[in-house]
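Example (one chain per record):
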Amino acid sequence: MIVCVLLDRFELVVAAGGRAGLLRQPAALAPELGRELFVGEVSRAAETFGIHAGMRMGEALSRCPGLALVPPDPMGVAEAWERALGRLEGLGAAVESLRPGEACFDAGGLQRLHAGRLVQMLADGRLAAQGTDERLRRVLAGARVGQGPTRFCAMVAAHGARVRRPGRVAGAAELAERPVELLRRRAEVAALVEPLERLGITTLGALAALSRDAVADRFGRPGLLAHDLARGRDTPLRPRRPGELLRESLELPEAGSGEQLGRALGLLIDRLLARSERRGRTLRAVVLAARLVEGGTWRERVVFREALADPERMRLALGGRLALLPAPAETLLLTVEGFGPPAPEVRALFDDGAAARDERLREAVRQARAAAGPNAALRVLEIDPDSRVPERRAVLTPMDP
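Predicted structure:
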């Protein structure tokens, strides 16, 4: 049995913060700066005007001129959703999350572990336990829960469920009367909803009744997936691997931009690579994020072509992403999202004195850190050499071992 936990309009609610009244009027998540002009999640009042997530902003404003655009908060959404997934994994669930606000897991063994009450526990707000900040607790308290034999069946059940009353969809027969609009919740087939509705196919049952060859001829591979979903079939779950959270942040003394940002990035990379929790492993994927001076956040995920532990190569890979920053930043953050294998030892092809001296220096740094902690060997890094405040011109950063 697959269970789906659905936090409807999660990104919009987190971005709106404490402005709960904003969600009772037509509102939509504004496009991120520098991205295509498509609106994000929309409030229930905006849906009455025919506005949906992924609609062009111009069309959304023409349908509802009074539409309120909420600035996105990608960093806040990622942090809040990570805490919510941590709650589920704390119950023993191996979670797959296709998007923030929607999580699925196989509850076969967990039902026995929780005496058959797991689904009802989630519906009763078990995720919104004490120890969570108030804003996230209000979001988690409105979770809707559904169950079914596949991921899509469980999602449809959660979509139609009420708060504190879990829903259930057993298979294709119960999907037949549901609107084809529900396919928008799967990124692979979301683009098919509009052409299907133009063809008069408004329910999942009508889609399932079509021949597979006709669907494949008109819509290709995405059409075949949509046809399978409408018939109650889906791909297997791919749970994520719970990982360690390794993060470094730096408050910028003045509005960070230009060369100062590059130096700050170098400092963050040095600090991250010097952390003992890294245990010599390379970095496969990182997240570069910033809190902006004028409000809002920015977030960019970077996957390296190969796992890295070389600070110079990381600066080259990440430095270009700083040009995408839409406004001056007040805080810069660097988070490890995936680790690679341990970094191999690099040996010189020919034995020379320079290589031996470098190795002795690295060994001395390791011994100093082992004896006196990670701050035993530091180097001076220039941050803002033209600043009139001496303390801002340079900082101490961990020395490369």
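Caption: The longest helix spans residues 353-372.
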